[in-house]
Amino acid sequence: MASRAVLHIFEDYQASRTKFVQTVAELAMRSQNMEALQNAGAMALLRPLLLDTVPSIQQVKAVVSNEVLPQLVHSLSEQNVNFLCYFCLLFDGTNVLLLIKKRPFFKKQRYHKKAAAFVTRSVAKHTPELAQKVVDAGALEPLVKCLSDASALSEISKHNNELAQAVVNSGVVTYLTSLVQHPDSKLKRQACSALAQIAKHSADLAEVIVEAEIFPKIFTCLKDLDVIVRKNAATLIREIAKHTLELASLIVNASGHAVLVEFVTENTGNTRLPGIMALGYIGAFSDTLALAIIVNQGIAPLKEALSNEEEDYIKAAASWSLGQIGRHTPDHSKALAQAGVFRILIDIFQNEQSSQDLKTKAQKAFKATVQKCTYLPALELLLHVINFICLIFSYKNFVYILLGNRQFMYKSFFNHTFFIEKR
């Protein structure tokens, strides 16, 4: 009897909650009831019911149907703005599009603009389809006007070229490039990130950012006190540099390669990864650009990363970049040989503890650079490495320079042949 009495109390409570939710939903369908519901504190009473596990209670979703939400937006008191943002996110996220369409929502106080932009970002970041819905709903214009959360623009732009182009067409690039010099570190982080997400898709989009005079402003961010600002700035430079010879040349002509070398030297770990890759992209396009990196002492920090970084993926990036820089001519290869890079690359792809990706990149970098090498001291040292790949490329290069230094070649060749036979 006691347990039945207890259950009866809870059944009454559930029935009362269900009736309350249904009644509020019905009343909210009529615009003339909105003010009375607000004054009675309907939103505050509905708030705890949002997380209710009873299916019938979840009919509170009906309160924000397409017909009701615009009325709620206009009638909300200021303390309920953040609640409505949370409400839209709690279910499927797409209801926020109704908020975006109501432009007065973005004209509220700064704190509420931030909440609205946060919701927009949270919806846009998941899939290209949701991001496209945000764009179609007209979110770009109010986001550009307030820029209280530039990361929403970043989340939209990252998915594909079409969405990034839509962001560019909104005219936001000029505003974002000016923000990279803003004193607020968080704003600089978001501005650099958004620009990087735009630039990564195509050379045309990267050129739009360059035309907005991002250079040399972005180079100052590589020396920022905030580590995330530094990393995001390096990421932006990498995304611009990777597309064409012309864009990479613009960076070098603005002395950006020298700043990147300094950035890679002064930072460690994942922070300097985009800088390492940016140097590789720049050096890959031409022997002139690669030589500019060598002249600015760019080999040393890349070698240091290759030797001392703990993570294999960072070592792999350093291997790739060194290979791109050293593969052009004998002079480029000589710079790597004199720095002792060959020996490190050999140790890496012979090390059983190295990841497969690291071994592959180290071996490719070694092949690409040693094929160009005519620096005899380095080649002679390679002859004493008991590794089939090293021997093949070493002997091949000796053949190339046979006529130029016949005596040295014969002496090294026969000495090493005798050494192998004895083994």
TrEMBL record:
<protein>
    <submittedName>
        <fullName>Axoneme central apparatus protein</fullName>
    </submittedName>
</protein>
<keyword id="KW-1133">Transmembrane helix</keyword>
<dbReference type="InterPro" id="IPR000225">
    <property type="entry name" value="Armadillo"/>
</dbReference>
<dbReference type="InterPro" id="IPR011989">
    <property type="entry name" value="ARM-like"/>
</dbReference>
<dbReference type="Pfam" id="PF00514">
    <property type="entry name" value="Arm"/>
</dbReference>
<dbReference type="GO" id="GO:0008017">
    <property type="term" value="F:microtubule binding"/>
</dbReference>
<dbReference type="GO" id="GO:0003341">
    <property type="term" value="P:cilium movement"/>
</dbReference>
<keyword id="KW-0472">Membrane</keyword>
<dbReference type="GO" id="GO:0015630">
    <property type="term" value="C:microtubule cytoskeleton"/>
</dbReference>
<dbReference type="InterPro" id="IPR016024">
    <property type="entry name" value="ARM-type_fold"/>
</dbReference>
<feature type="transmembrane region" description="Helical">
    <location>
        <begin position="381"/>
        <end position="403"/>
    </location>
</feature>
<keyword id="KW-0812">Transmembrane</keyword>
